[in-house]
Design brief:
single chain, elongated, 79% helix
């Protein structure tokens, strides 16, 4: 179990990194919005491209925040139903769901990196300020990679929990009621 605890700590740092980046993105968005509102009503001049800045900042916020939310077990889950299953049924069901989620997370990460490369090749940019999209799609892919690491860790942990009663009980005790 020491290995699981060490892995939990490392994955916790990954989730925290996502949280910090997401927090910086939200502070950036607030700054742009405040500057835009202040500029419009006091200086009578809006921040050019403010909606583009905020939209791109939201991309970073959402995808980096997902890793932290997963680590803190803030995602909506169907554990109420699984608690009703007999024997090892809850853990087996939960492990299958987690492996499926991990595979989807890895595929989303891969697709995001591919799409970011495509946007770079196409030189796609925003309409007003011509900010290239690809750096933000790469950031989105990094956020998804952090999320995928959290999902993979959860799937591995749950698989180990199938064979170790104390870990299985700890995992089930973490499920929301």
């Amino acid at each position: 179990m020491k290995t699981i605890d060490k892995a939990e700590k490392i994955v916790g740092y990954i989730g925290l990194a996502g949280c910090i980046v997401a927090a910086l993105a939200i502070v950036f968005n607030f700054g742009v919005i405040i500057a835009d509102v202040f500029g419009r009503f006091v200086l009578h001049k809006a921040v050019r491209g403010s909606s583009e800045y905020v939209g791109l900042g939201e991309t970073v916020l959402i995808f980096f925040g997902m890793a932290y939310t997963q680590h803190k077990k803030g995602m909506v889950e169907i554990t109420f139903f699984m608690r009703k299953l007999p024997g090892h049924g809850p853990m087996i069901c939960w492990t299958v769901v987690n492996w499926f989620s991990a595979i989807v997370g890895v595929l989303l990460t891969y697709a995001s990196f591919v799409h970011a490369g495509f946007l770079k090749t196409m030189k796609a940019a925003t309409d007003t300020l011509y900010i290239p999209y690809y750096p933000f799609y790469y950031l989105m892919a990094v956020g998804l990679a952090l999320f995928a690491i959290e999902l993979i860790y959860g799937a591995v942990r749950n698989t180990i929990g199938l064979f170790h009663k104390d870990l299985r009980e700890r995992i089930i005790s973490e499920w929301p009621m």
